[in-house]
């Protein structure tokens, strides 16, 4: 039993912090109409690829670094803290789908390119209403498959070289790989509220799809747990940073002859957020550890982390704007970037109440 | 990082279990002789035990049906006793610690006064030096278990000519000393009394029983309150003990009440918060053993744990509706391991308002977190710098006393 981060983990986090503090510049986004592209979405990725982060979770056999989920949480946390705009989330999501559902040959071929920084991925999952794999249909065409339908809210779709698509084949959920540039693939950007990400739709009209031959009922839950961890790690770190920003501001800004932070209505709110920030971080570390150890508690831990960190981040960004006053409500401040990231993170894979329902169902099954 | 708790086959656990099987109803003195009543204290009192051993001992004592010494004699073992290790004299340690560790002398905390618990520094009880003794006069109130305690840790004013926090001193008081009168106060739960008021009239306490020097009192009690808060971060409904969210979920699932859509999501929220509190507590233990500075969990932990406990027992009540309004007739099952009072949700619920009052109110705790952890400005106290005997303001009698008149 040892609930603290090792020195190696802390070093990794510090290295990511130093790099991102230097490279991420959110100022271009503080102009109305700006999008992720204006804040280095593509250029930052090239530097990140040079650092080898795309290969963090790719096993060594496929040329990756094969690092643990705890390592990953360190890096993702820093990306969440800085809102680093770049196609990292999509590549992670696609990588996990291929890792879980691909054959040996598919993993070696597809993930080798990711590890080498030559390919970016995205994972196309949901219908407009958020149902998984319901909006794209697959049909067999000789030894190939053809995909038709539209997937929504696909993070980093426009940047991806390959898109992993969840689709129905004979009534079952399967995962396919589509070349982004292939015929019958149309990608459109959505006017997504969180402008630090790039999110779009993927419309397929008879596009050629390569079936990931190991797709089964467990593919999506397995990938989902990892995506929960990823978003939760961003959210926990984001909670911390908006709390810190609000605290700093509350120490400087004066009202009635005292700093704002001298008033209990303000300081008590910030104290509560400090509690939520601690709990969110603990939840992320626990989930990262459970996934690393392939512990039976991992699905529970991941769902707990995602629901708790989503709520904490939402509360914290709301309070953050409130503490700043009207200036916090302007486009020219970065408060709203966090506010929007928090809100979008809490909806992207289903709301916190849905993860709590998953928690209860896991407990019910355990008790049965 | 390793979130696994020590397993069933851990040799240290097996040794503890074997001893408890060979000695099925040990006295607390026997446990104390093994260093098991305060395992985290250094030798000769404890074992300098790390978090794993502490957890295993807790679990094995529970398994053997033995009430935790740190529950039975909480003030001595969790809160005040430890300060004898740093502030006490060797003679004080030899006199007071062995019976405390053996739970043969129970301790109480004589801090709060009618003048206010939050503003503890405003206390009025005085001690005057007379030869080798001090003579104490005044009144304490809200003192848990003072009626069944042999020892009281008391903070009094030894110098009124300096600002309020400066003139305070701490004594270890034999509760049988002439002039000490303890009167139980019935709390709103109506159960076996929790707290008391304590009157002190010309009570003589030897100067040798002063903890630290004259004027060290404030630092000592602040330290003791921090230690106490640390102990209250476990996810039990009542100050860290009592029923937990795990047990609530278990009861709700077994009775089918979990299917009620009006409680289901709240139950999940509480379960998650309870698990995270547990992680914070273990992480604190874990930090300690690694020699890292103690985390912020103590203050933060109680700030989260107290309202968590209130919501927890509230949900237990809500899930039962009117059926839960009959005294001690809960229909929600609870494992029989909380040793008396907290064996039912009913008492946990009616006691729960106290959770955000005792050991620092929720408001004072938030101040502490904001000021000490976040570094925000401190609240103003216009009386803080004035010599105590020059603070001249009308006395506001607590409502209870006013009503009596
Ligand atoms: C069950 C129980 C057991 C207890 N056991 C003990 C014991 O063993 N020994 C002992 O010495 N004491 C004990 N206490 C007393 C406890 O420490 C005090 O109740 C507590 O410190 C609050 O003091 P008070 O009751 O005088 O309330 P007050 O200090 O008068 O406070 C009243 C209200 O005002 C708020 N308030 C006060 N100051 C501020 C501020 N600066 N900012 C914002 N809000 C403020 C408080 O939060 C509270 O809500 C116990 C209390 C309870 C309920």
Automatic annotation (TrEMBL), chain A:
Residue ranges of the Acyl-CoA dehydrogenase/oxidase N-terminal domain?
6-118
GO molecular function (one): acyl-CoA dehydrogenase activity
Per the database record, which ranges form the Acyl-CoA dehydrogenase/oxidase C-terminal domain? 230-359
Q: Kindly give the InterPro entries that the UniProt entry links to this protein.
A: Acyl-CoA_Oxase/DH_mid-dom_sf, AcylCo_DH-like_C, AcylCo_DH/oxidase_C, AcylCoA_DH/ox_N, AcylCoA_DH/ox_N_sf, AcylCoA_DH/oxidase_NM_dom_sf
Which cofactor does this sequence's record say it needs?
Answer: FAD
* Keywords noted in UniProt: FAD, Flavoprotein, Oxidoreductase
Pfam families assigned to the protein according to its UniProt record, in alphabetical order: Acyl-CoA_dh_1, Acyl-CoA_dh_N
Q: What family is this?
A: Belongs to the acyl-CoA dehydrogenase family.
Name of the protein this chain belongs to = Acyl-CoA dehydrogenase
From TrEMBL, chain B:
Acyl-CoA dehydrogenase/oxidase C-terminal domain boundaries: 215-374
Pfam families listed in its UniProt record: Acyl-CoA_dh_1, Acyl-CoA_dh_M, Acyl-CoA_dh_N
Keyword set for this entry? Answer: FAD, Flavoprotein, Oxidoreductase
Cofactor(s) demanded: FAD
Molecular function (GO) terms for this protein are:
flavin adenine dinucleotide binding; oxidoreductase activity, acting on the CH-CH group of donors
Q: Where is the Acyl-CoA oxidase/dehydrogenase middle domain?
A: 108-203
GO CC entries = plasma membrane
Domain annotation Acyl-CoA dehydrogenase/oxidase N-terminal: ranges: 14-102
At the top level, the lineage of the source is Bacteria
Q: Which family does it belong to?
A: Belongs to the acyl-CoA dehydrogenase family.
Protein's recorded name: Acyl-CoA dehydrogenase
Per the UniProt entry, what species is this protein from, by scientific name?
Chelatococcus reniformis
């Amino acid at each position: 039993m040892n609930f603290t981060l090792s020195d190696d983990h802390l070093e990794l986090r510090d290295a990511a912090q130093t790099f991102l503090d230097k490279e991420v510049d959110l100022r271009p986004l503080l102009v109305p109409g700006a999008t992720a592209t204006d804040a280095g979405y593509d250029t930052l990725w090239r530097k990140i690829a040079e650092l080898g982060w795309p290969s963090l979770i790719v096993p060594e056999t496929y040329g990756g670094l094969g690092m643990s989920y705890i390592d990953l949480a360190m890096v993702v946390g820093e990306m969440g803290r800085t809102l680093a705009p770049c196609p990292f989330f999509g590549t992670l999501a696609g990588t996990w789908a291929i890792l879980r559902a691909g054959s040996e040959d598919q993993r070696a071929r597809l993930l080798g390119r990711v590890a080498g920084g030559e390919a970016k991925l995205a994972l196309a999952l949901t219908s407009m209403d958020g149902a998984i794999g319901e909006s794209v249909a697959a049909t067999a065409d000789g030894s190939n498959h053809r995909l038709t339908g539209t997937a929504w809210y696909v993070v980093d779709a426009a940047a991806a070289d390959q898109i992993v698509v969840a689709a129905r084949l004979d009534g079952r959920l399967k995962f396919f790989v589509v070349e982004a540039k292939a015929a019958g693939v149309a990608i459109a950007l959505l006017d997504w509220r969180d402008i630090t990400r790039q999110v779009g739709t993927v419309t397929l009209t008879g596009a050629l799809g390569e079936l990931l031959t190991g797709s089964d009922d467990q593919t999506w839950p397995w990938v989902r747990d990892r995506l929960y961890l990823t978003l939760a790690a961003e959210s926990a770190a984001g909670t911390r940073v908006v709390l810190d920003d609000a605290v700093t501001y509350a120490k400087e800004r004066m009202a009635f002859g005292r700093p704002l932070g001298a008033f209990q209505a303000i300081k008590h709110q910030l104290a509560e957020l400090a509690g939520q920030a601690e709990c969110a971080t603990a939840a992320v570390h626990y989930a990262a550890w459970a996934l690393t150890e392939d512990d039976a508690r991992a699905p529970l831990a991941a769902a707990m982390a995602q629901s708790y960190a989503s709520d904490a981040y939402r509360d914290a960004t709301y309070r953050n704007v409130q503490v700043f006053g009207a200036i916090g409500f302007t486009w020219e401040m970065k408060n709203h970037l966090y506010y929007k990231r928090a809100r979008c993170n809490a909806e992207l894979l289903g709301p916190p109440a849905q993860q709590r329902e998953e928690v209860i169902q896991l407990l019910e099954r355990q008790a049965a | 990082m390793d979130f696994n708790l020590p397993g069933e086959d851990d040799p240290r656990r097996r040794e503890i279990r074997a001893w408890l099987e060979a000695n099925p109803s040990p006295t607390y003195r026997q446990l104390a002789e093994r260093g098991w009543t305060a395992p985290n204290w250094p030798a000769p009192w404890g074992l300098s035990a790390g978090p794993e051993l502490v957890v295993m001992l807790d679990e094995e004592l529970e398994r053997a049906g033995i009430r935790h010494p740190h529950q039975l004699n909480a003030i001595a073992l969790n809160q005040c006793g430890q300060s004898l290790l740093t502030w006490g004299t060797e003679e004080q340690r030899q006199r007071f610690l062995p019976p405390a560790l053996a739970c043969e002398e129970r301790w109480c905390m004589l801090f709060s006064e009618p003048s206010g618990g939050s503003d503890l520094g405003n206390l009025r009880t005085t001690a005057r030096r007379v030869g080798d003794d001090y003579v104490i006069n005044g009144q304490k109130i809200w003192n848990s278990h003072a009626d069944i305690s042999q020892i009281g840790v008391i903070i009094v004013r030894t110098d009124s000519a300096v600002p309020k926090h400066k003139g305070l001193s701490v004594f270890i008081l034999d509760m049988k000393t002439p002039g000490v009168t303890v009167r139980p106060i019935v709390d709103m739960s109506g159960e076996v009394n929790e707290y008391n008021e304590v009157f002190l009239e010309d009570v003589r306490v030897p100067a040798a029983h002063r903890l630290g020097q004259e004027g060290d009192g404030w630092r000592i009690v602040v330290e003791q309150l921090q230690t106490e808060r640390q102990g209250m971060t476990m996810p039990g409904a009542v100050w860290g003990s009592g029923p937990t969210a795990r047990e609530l979920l278990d009861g709700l699932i077994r009775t089918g009440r979990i299917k009620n859509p009006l409680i289901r999501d709240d139950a999940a929220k509480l379960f998650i918060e309870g698990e995270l509190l547990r992680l914070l507590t273990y992480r604190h233990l874990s930090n300690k053993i690694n020699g890292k500075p103690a985390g912020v969990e103590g203050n933060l932990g109680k700030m989260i744990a107290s309202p968590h406990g209130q919501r927890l027992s509230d949900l237990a009540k809500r899930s039962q509706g009117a059926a839960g309004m009959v005294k001690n007739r809960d229909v929600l099952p609870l494992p029989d391991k909380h040793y008396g009072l907290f064996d039912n949700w009913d008492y946990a619920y009616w006691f729960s308002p106290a959770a955000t009052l005792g050991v620092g109110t929720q408001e004072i705790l938030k101040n502490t977190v904001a000021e000490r952890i976040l570094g925000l400005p401190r609240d103003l106290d216009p009386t803080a710098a004035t010599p105590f005997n020059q603070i001249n303001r009308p006395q506001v009698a607590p409502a209870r006393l006013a009503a009596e008149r």
